[in-house]
Structure of NADP oxidoreductase:
Amino acid sequence: MDNAVLGILGAGKLGTVLARLAVAAGYRVLIAGSGSVEKISLTIEVLAPGAQALTAKEVTEKADIVLLALPLGKYQTIPQAELQGKIVIDAMNYWWEIDGKENTISDFQTSSSEVVQNFLKDSIVVKAFNHMGYHDIEDETRAAGENQRKAIAYAADDDTAGNTAAQLIDDLGFDPLFIGPLKNGITLEPGSPLFGANLSKEELLAAIQQFPESEFGKKVIAAREVL
Ligand SMILES: NC(=O)c1ccc[n+]([C@@H]2O[C@H](COP(=O)([O-])OP(=O)(O)OC[C@H]3O[C@@H](n4cnc5c(N)ncnc54)[C@H](OP(=O)(O)O)[C@@H]3O)[C@@H](O)[C@H]2O)c1
């Protein structure tokens, strides 16, 4: 994407890997953790050289697109006003070790990205980059072109935002696979057989199509119908 400024909230395992790939793809990358810039400066210098560490407020103000790579349980700390009108790519998952044993945020009826969209009412949320582990995302053999491209599935209600996410996915070295509206994002979350998928586009599509006709599977089938 020409001259796009990508903001990343979360300077942990996922955020730093995505920052590194985005810098390599030519993006200007701004990244924030939960606190001061000093707290993450060295981490960013070492793990994502070329990315600029800022506060979360600065990142949301200055970036064109903002990627959420912070713990889901912290979603209400995301600066809302600064994200007004912006495309927000939500890579977050409910993860009990971090977010608590009881999932009070989302359930098997609602995608956590719908919850985030409700909170960020004036932004356009797309779900992407949540189903693949950070170690697979940063796979150096793939990055070096020695390995087949893998697919990142994404769910979006808005075509323009979906296309922007697809472009970012492609720029970062993955094949984008659209799985329908944001509510279908539930099919990519922990608890789904697709969670953890590190597959080519054809393999991921086949995995979606093999879903059993369970209650959960019906949601996946809804996703399949729009593919
Ligand atoms: N790890 C994976 O393989 C993977 C894959 C796909 C999706 N995800 C999802 O991605 C998210 C991040 O996972 P992770 O493994 O990267 O976690 P992590 O290593 O624990 O990093 C989380 C980062 O978010 C920061 N943070 C917390 N509150 C914030 C806020 N209000 N604003 C900005 N940054 C904030 C933390 O900063 P402090 O250290 O200062 O608190 C930390 O830098 C989670 O929702 C996870 O479910 C993870």
Q: What stands out?
A: The chain has a mean pLDDT of 90. Residues 9-15, 32-35, 56, 69-72, 74, 77, 91-93, 95, 130, 133-134 surround NAP (CB under 6 Å). The CA atoms of residues 95 and 101 lie 8 Å apart.
